[in-house]
Amino acid sequence: MVKPSASASVTIDGQRLWRTLVELSRYGAGAEGTGITRLSLSEAEVEARESIVRLMKEAGLTVWVDAAGNLIGRLEAFEGGGNGADEAPHLEAYAAKRDGAVVTGSHIDTVVQAGMFDGALGVLAGIEALRTIREHAIPHARPLEVVCFTDEEGVRFGAGYFGSRAMAGGWNGEWLELRDAEGITLRAAMERAGLDPSRCAGAARTRESVHAYVELHIEQGRVLEELGAPVGTATAIYGHRWLEASLKGHADHAGTTPMALRRDAAMAAAESMLAIERIALAEGGVAAVGAMRLGPGAINVIPGESVFTVDLRHERQESLDAMAVAVQDAIVRTADSRGVSAEIRVIDGAQPVPTSPRIHALIADSCAEIGLQANPLICGAGHDAVVMSELAEIGLILVRSKDGLSHHPMEWSSPEDCEAGANVLLHTLLKLANE
Ligand SMILES: [Zn+2]
User: Fold this and answer.
1) Distance, CA 13 to ligand 1 centroid (Å)?
2) What pLDDT does residue 87 have?
């Protein structure tokens, strides 16, 4: 084993990282003010993927495309002398290898009219970190990999994380028949991009081949900006529970019906919503009622029907369950007290994903080494890291987003913040690679 302390003063090239971000942002760029539209496996994204392959090669990495179209750049373990990247990996031997790789990565596909940082920063900071390690010939006992995952956003075909799911062994062959807005199947899109869709399941990796996964991503929220901090680390990624409540009262004339005789489904919904807010605050989670419909929906008619959605999120499974139970109880009780009936159904859910406390501590150490605070926070958005947690322990480094904006042309993280995040990534990868 080698000691990481010898490399503590090494830093990434911030200007080079910024240049690659600006270059990548040209792929899929629309007219002024419309941002970047680089849907997965579109012509623009395929060209961007080719530029990533060129950049990985330029960085001295061994590059291959796995069966699900994930682009992978690898730096072999290097314990001093010679050059870690000169030998192509022997994939079978490598799959069986016990010394798993330390993996970083993210995605370069975008939503419609997106910004230039979501996903892209993680891929490019990963390449920059590995390039720095190679250029400075920093010893690392484990191999290092940077992955550009296929279709994280799920915008084009309606289901995301294709690449990371395939890598984690969760590929579903039915996905190939999903169609985009123009009727093109995922199968056809993969073929057009020069990929063989029949092989996707072959992208699955063994747990032994991945020692740890660390992703750098923009925060896409306002917490770091509020704290005045360039970088944070996620302790967990929120789980969610989506409910739909249908309340039925009685539609009546809004003038002739005395207040005491009303069975107003909208008022019952309103009282329920305030209870939902109190429950979220009490449990330390978050809640939103994002959509609501009233029937019959006329200014002079008491609503006999209301249907509303509830989005509940929490970082702990027990608390998420408790929130969901309390919310359902509150809706039923409130409705009952107003002579209104309530039906509630669960329409979607996902478990919270904790990050590894061990990797979290290494990220905090790396922050301290470059004079930054680690700022633990809960991540509110899903990333490839969520899926990779099925394969290895994960860590998540977050970079401050201006005004919390994301999935928007005005998405912005400053060159200084991107550089700081990439340096935290560099030192975290090195610590993990020397375990
Ligand atoms: Zn993303």
Assistant:
1) 23
2) 47
pLDDT tens for each residue of 50-67: 999 999 999 999 999 999
Walk me through the domains of the chain, giving residue ranges and CATH numbers. Answer: 4-236+352-433 (3.40.630.10), 239-350 (3.30.70.360)
User: Cα(14) to centroid of ligand 1, in Å?
Assistant: 21
User: SS3 of 258, please?
Assistant: coil
Asked whether the beta carbons of 355 and 396 are under 8 A apart, the reply is yes
| Mean residue pLDDT across the chain | 93
Q: Which residues surround ligand 1, an ion (CB under 5 A)?
A: 118-119
User: From ligand 1's centre to the CA of 26, what distance in Å?
Assistant: 18
Asked if pLDDT for residue 4 goes beyond 90, the answer is no
Question: How far away, in angstroms, is 320 Cα from ligand 1 center?
Answer: 24
Question: What is the reported pLDDT for 6?
Answer: 53
Question: How many A from CA of 331 to the centre of ligand 1?
Answer: 35
| C-alpha to C-alpha distance for 22 and 27, rounded to whole angstroms | 10
Q: How far is the CA of 267 from the centre of ligand 1 (A)?
A: 39
Q: How much is the average pLDDT of 121-144? A: 96
pLDDT at 81: 56
Model confidence, pTM: 0.88
What's the rounded Cα separation, in Å, for the pair 287 and 279? 9
Residue 104, CA distances (Å) to 44, 240, 245, 394 in order: 24, 25, 41, 10
Tell me how far the alpha carbon of residue 156 lies from the centroid of ligand 1, in angstroms: 15
C-alpha 110 – ligand 1 centre gap (Å): 8
- Residue 159 Cα to ligand 1 middle (Å): 14
Query: Token pair 């995040």 is at which residue?
Result: 421
